[in-house]
Design goal:
2% strand; 65% helix; 189 residues
């Protein structure tokens, strides 16, 4: 059961975004730019970075949501995403993405854990400064989102199909529309 009284029974961050639409709109805009905006990293790769950080932070709602969002947008699909979000060294992860996932994992621990060696390794695999920048920002933002969701004890979906329904909504409409539309079933604590 959430620690605060939410206005509806939407699980995870969705209920929180609706609780404070003024801050919710800003957080959704940040997610929209980071995960769906113009970028040389694909939407699936960026969602995988979000899922990886959320997995490391043990945020079940965000890890499951962004794994579903990544699977819906990455050619490797769900099997690839499930393996890669847990293990950046998974054999099918490209060398560049592997180095970016390592940077994301370091950010999740502490920004100071990102070393010149990690950055040089990413550059050595073809990562651009913009891709390194965006990886760090995605990892930092998702650490914030994970703490927001778990810090207020939000509920999880009643049915795991919620994540697939949400993924379809995100792929079709983006993050800006998530507070305006019910994207599927209520939550459980």
């Amino acid at each position: 059961m959430p620690y605060i009284s939410l206005s509806d029974e939407q699980p995870g961050i969705v209920g929180l975004l609706r609780y404070r639409p003024d801050t919710g709109a800003i957080l959704n805009q940040l997610a929209e730019v980071l995960l769906r905006g113009e970028n040389t990293l694909t939407r699936g790769e960026r969602e995988l970075i979000a899922a990886h950080v959320s997995t490391l932070n043990s945020c079940e709602f965000c890890a499951s949501s962004h794994a579903a969002f990544a699977a819906a947008q990455h050619p490797g699909g769900a099997d690839f995403v499930e393996a890669a979000r847990v293990d950046p060294d998974y054999r099918e992860v490209s060398a560049k993405l592997r180095t970016l996932l390592r940077i994301a994992g370091a950010v999740r621990e502490s920004g100071r854990d990102v070393t010149a060696e990690l950055v040089e390794a990413a550059r050595g695999e073809g990562a651009t400064d913009a891709e390194i920048h965006d990886t760090v920002l995605i990892a930092a933002a998702f650490s914030l989102f994970n703490r927001y969701v778990d810090g207020l004890g939000t509920s999880l979906p009643v049915d795991a199909s919620y994540y697939r329904q949400s993924a379809q909504h995100i792929v079709e409409h983006g993050y800006a529309a998530t507070t305006a539309v019910d994207v599927g079933g209520g939550g459980r604590s």
